[in-house]
Amino acid sequence: MSDEKPRASNPLINKRKLEARRKFLRSVVLGAAVLGISSVGYIPVARAWNVRMRPPGALEEPDFLSSCIKCGQCVQVCPVAAIKLDDLDQGFGVGVPYIDSRTQACDFSCDAVQCILACPTGALVYKKPTFMPTRSEMVLPAPPILLAKEKSPEPTLNLKERSGLAVLVRPEKCLARQGKGIKGAARGQSFEGTMRFMEVDRWKPIPLRDHPYDLELCDLCVRTCPIKNAISMEIVKENGVEIHSPVVHEACVGCGVCEMVCPPDLAAIVVEARKGWSV
Fold first, then answer.
1. pLDDT in tens, 29-62
2. What gap in Å lies between CA 119 and CA 79, rounded to an integer?
3. pTM of the entire predicted model
4. Residues near 74 by Cβ (< 8 Å), separated by ≥ 6?
5. Nearest of 276, 224, 239 to residue 254 by alpha carbon
6. Torsion over CA: 198, 272, 229, 156 (sign)
7. What range defines the domain where residue 138 resides?
8. Does position 237 have pLDDT exceeding 50, yes or no?
9. Tally of structural domains, the chain
10. How far apart are CA 99 and CA 106, in angstroms?
11. Chain CA centroid to CA 234, Å
12. Is 6 inside any structural domain?
């Protein structure tokens, strides 16, 4: 048996080791925090890749983002509160106006498109300056006729380009294509979106839930569209069977009303931002 006694540990060495361990742990925690913050910062950048639906008359996205001063004037004048301001998690467009058509579409309740009139910088315009590029597929074939003004001396909107285009992205969800109707509120009693209905009040938008329907065949996207000849319900033949289906036409301005009123949980028809018309 050895008579050697274990050497006493050096308090100074132990203290240095403990301090080194603490510094290492602090570095790990700090590095993780920096990485986490960086990742959070990346989320807006990634989301910014997705183009938002902008208010009527918006310039092409790069020009719009460089022109908009985020003053919120367009938000203030919108009669249906369709225009919102992007939050911190929405990319480089923090504070920039956008429209979420599924939640609240622009139904042109203002008639004159007040957001364009209110914009102080030209980010929203009736007609682009000549030096700005115009995509031919965005140009409307004729001044859009607002059905609410159809009988007035000047029934058209002074819009030259569309904001986007309605697309039947989920045909399997479409009630008309299934031969089904709709009874009651289009989006249920909890939905808070509003619209102008000519038969109720020419100027005052009301909640969509307060305007119930009783239709043997759903055609809400057609009957609520504010623009004349933008969408129609037609009989199409698929796999040898004739069915009713909504068909979007070149007059579509991309207002988003069809998307807002579409009854299924996932809308059958949606408006794709900055999408142009292609034959």
1. 666 554 554 444 444 444 445 688 999 999 999 9
2. 15
3. 0.82
4. 55, 83, 97, 114, 115, 118, 119, 124
5. 276
6. positive
7. 61-273
8. yes
9. 1
10. 8
11. 27
12. no
- In this structure, what token pair is assigned to residue 152? 């007035």
**Helices vs. strands in the chain: H and E counts, helices first:** 6, 10
**Does residue 22 lie within any of the structural domains?**
no
CA–CA separation, 240 and 251 (whole Å):
29
Neighbours of 99 (CB within 10 A): 27
Region of poorest pLDDT, from 24-28, 175-179, 215-219: 24-28
The answer to whether position 242 is within a domain reads yes
Residue 36 lies in a domain: no
The Cα 173–Cα 178 span in angstroms is 8
Tokens of 242: 């004739």
Note whether 48 and 94 are within 8 A (CB).
Answer: no
| Contacts (Cβ under 8 Å, ≥6 apart) of 217 | 175, 176, 179, 180, 181, 233, 244
Tokens of 237: 């033949």
What's the rounded Cα separation, in Å, for the pair 139 and 159?
9
More confident residue, 42 or 190: 190
